[in-house]
Amino acid sequence: MTPTSLVVVLAALAAVAYWLGRSRSLATVGGARGIRNLHSLPSYYGALTAVWCAIPALLVLILWVSFQEPIIMRLVVSHLPPETQALNSSELGLMLNDVRNVAAGHVAPTAVRQEVRSAAEEYIELRRIARLALTALALAVGIIGIIISRGRISPELRARNAVERFIEWFLIGCSLIAVLTTIGIIASVAFEAMRFFSKIPWYEFLFGLHWSPQTAIRADQVGSSGAFGAVPLFWGTIMISGIAMLIAVPVGLFSAIYLAEYAHRSFRAWTKPFIEVLAGVPTVVYGFFAALTVGPALRGWGEAIGLDVSSESALAAGLVMGIMIIPFVSSLADDMITAVPQSLRDGAYALGATRSETIRQIVLRAALPGIVGGVLLAISRAIGETMIVVMAAGLGANLTANPLEAVTTVTVQIVTLLVGDQEFDSPKTLAAFALGLVLFIVTLGLNILALHIVKKYREQYE
To answer: Is beta strand 211-212 parallel, antiparallel or unpaired with respect to 227-228?
Structure first.
C-alpha cells in the first residue's frame, strides 16, 4: 500500500475510532439519558479516541517514509559486488540513479548492466516488503491506540481538556513550522552570501559601478574574474519601482477616496471588486502586455517626437508594474478611509466644512498611518517583481538616469544567475544569494517601517 493510500485508510480508521469512542462514552452512563453524568460531551470522547488512533500511526508513517529510502539504498549497496562498492561516491551515485530509473520504469532493463538489473530487482523487492511492513505497523499502532483510549473512557475522564490541549499543541506546532521555515530561509541565504563575500569584498559589491558576473576567456579582458558592483542593479530597481509608485499611489489613492467618500453604494459594490481583479492577473500576463503593447507604443511615440526610446525600457516596465500595484494601494487605502468613524465627518460638517475639506483635513489625516503603511507594503511588492522586468526592461545592467533606456533589477539578475546548470562554488552563482540577502533586508526594513508607522500613529476610535 502506498503512503497516500495508507493515509486514506488511517483517516477512515480514525472515523471508526471516533464512533467507537463516542458510543463507548454513552454506554458508560447508560445511554443518552445519562449524558449529564459525563464530564465532557460524547463528541470529545470520540475525538480523543480518534486522536490516539491517528496521531501515533501518522508519526510512524512519517518516520518510516523519512528513513526508508536511505536504508533500502544501503542494503542494495551492501549486496553489490566488492569492485562496485569500491567505486567513488560520484560513480556509485550515478549507478544508484540508474537503479532507481530502472525500478521506476524510466529505463529499460536491457539498456543497463547485469549488476544494475540485479540491484534494481532487489530494490523493487525491498520497497515492496517495506510497504507491507509499514502498512501492518501503522494499522497495528492505530488499532492499539483505539483499544487503549477506548478502554480508558469513563464518566470522570476529562476528554474535553485533553482534546483542547492537543489542539493547542497542534497550533503551536503550526506556528513553529512557519517560524522555523523563515529562520531556515534566512540562514541558508545568509550562509551562501557569506561564502560570496569571502571571495568578493563587500564594499566592491555594495558600491561597485560595474556588473558583469561572467568570467572572461582571457586574463587581459575587462572583468576577467567577474565584476560584481551591484549599484546598477540597485539603481534599476529603484528607478522601476519609483516609476511604478508614481502611477500606483495617486491612481490608487484617488480611486479609494472616490469609492469610499463619493461613489454610490451600488457603484462601489461592483467597481471595487472589478479593480481588485487586477491583483489576480498573473504577472506573466502583465509582462506580455508590457513587451507587446506598452513597449512598442512608447517607442513609436518617442520616434514621433524625436526621442530615442529603447524597445525594452524602465518606463515601460514601471508603467505596467504601477498598473499591477494599483489594487494593493487602492484596497488598503479604502479600508483605512472607511475605518474612520462617521462621527468625525459629522463633526466637521457641523463646523461648516465642505465634503472636500472634511476629506483633506479630517479623513485623510486620520487614515494617514494606514495609507502610508499600505504604500510601503506596495513598494515591497514592486521591489520583488521579476517577470514584468524580464519581459519589458531587459537584462542590461546599465547605470543611467534615462528611463527610456534598458535597465535591470536585483530580482531579474537572481533569476539569470541561477538559470541552468551552475556551480555553487563560483562567485557568479553565489552572487545571487548576496543579492537575495540585500533584497530580503530591504523588504524586511520596509515592512518593519510600515508596521512602526501604523503602530505609532494609529488612533483608536470607539
So the answer is: antiparallel
Tell me the sheet residues that pair with 227.
212
C-alpha torsion 442→443→448→452, nearest 10: 90
Measured CA to CA in angstroms, residue 368 lies from 246, 335, 381 at distances of: 18, 12, 20
With beta carbons less than 8 A apart as the criterion, state whether 333 and 252 touch.
yes
Tell me if 233 sits within 8 A of 432, measured CB to CB. no
Nearest to 242 by CA among 334, 317, 297, 293: 317
Answer yes or no: are the C-beta atoms of 335 and 253 closer than 8 Å. Answer: no
Q: What is the phi/psi pair of residue 446, to 5°?
A: -65, -40
Q: Cα(312)–Cα(309) distance, rounded to whole angstroms?
A: 8
User: What are the structural domain ranges in the chain?
Assistant: 3-157, 212-457
The model's pLDDT over 131-183, given as tens digits with 9 standing for 90+, comes to 999 999 999 999 999 999 888 888 888 889 999 999 999 999 989 998 999 89
What confidence tens digit (pLDDT) does each residue in 279-299 have?
A: 888 888 888 888 888 888 888
- Give me the CATH topology for the region 212-457: MetI-like fold (1.10.3720)
Burial (CB count <10 Å: 0-12, 13-18, 19+), residue 238: middle
